[in-house]
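User: Second chain of the day. Same drill as before.
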Amino acid sequence: MEWMSRFVRIMDTVSEAGPPGIAITALADKTDITKGSLHRILHDMMNYDLIVQHDDTKRYSLGPQSMIWGSRFVNGRDISDLLGPYCARLSQRVRLYGFLCRFVANEVYCIYTHQPEQERRTYYVHVGQRMPLHASASAKAILAFQPEEKIRYLLEQTPRNYFTEQTKLNVVDIVEELHEVRQNRIAWCLEEMERGVSAVAVPIFGQNQTVTFSLSLIGNHDEIMANREKICQNLLEIERVVEQQLQAMQSFASTEGYAGQ
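Assistant: Same format as last time:
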């Protein structure tokens, strides 16, 4: 359906432009739609308040009807409901147990899990589980992007339990690893909580580049190491999509909150 393809390309491109909007020439270049066709389509979309044109700049941006639809979509949904399907998709693709975590009151908790059909082994990560800040990949992916003084405070104040010979207990060593996570945007738990089991996680950036969520995969250590590159590639690809959804949700939520004041 060509009209649907054009509609989606226009909406995607205009939404990416943000409040300043986008000029007709740039929109034509990005969507590969001629200016003549764009003028007709945009005129119809403006009649339904999907798109608005700024009088001063003549640029196009999302209209109020788009915001209404987005607000209705977000309203009443929690994070796991919105982001869970992406975690499940990743889990099925790489055939590893996947889960989402959230940073609340200086603790990292699991909020969603998915076990792929091909994975027979059940890993002991469940909704509501508190993840150790010093040893779990999911917690490291979040902790690494907190202020430096907060990182040290939390590590010093939180019990650092010994799980295996791979578990790091020294705060200096853990902070050094978190600096690497901050650079690479990939966190690892290499048999630090259970022998033969490893995990990898990525931070999910929300508005203002804050990190309160992470996306993780866990499985057999040897299998993960053998497919390390592929797993990381898939994880980072899904991460970008998840971040877009989270930031859109937070943007709508803040808009609705402001409008209600």
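The chain is about 50% helix and 20% strand.

User: Great, on to the next one.
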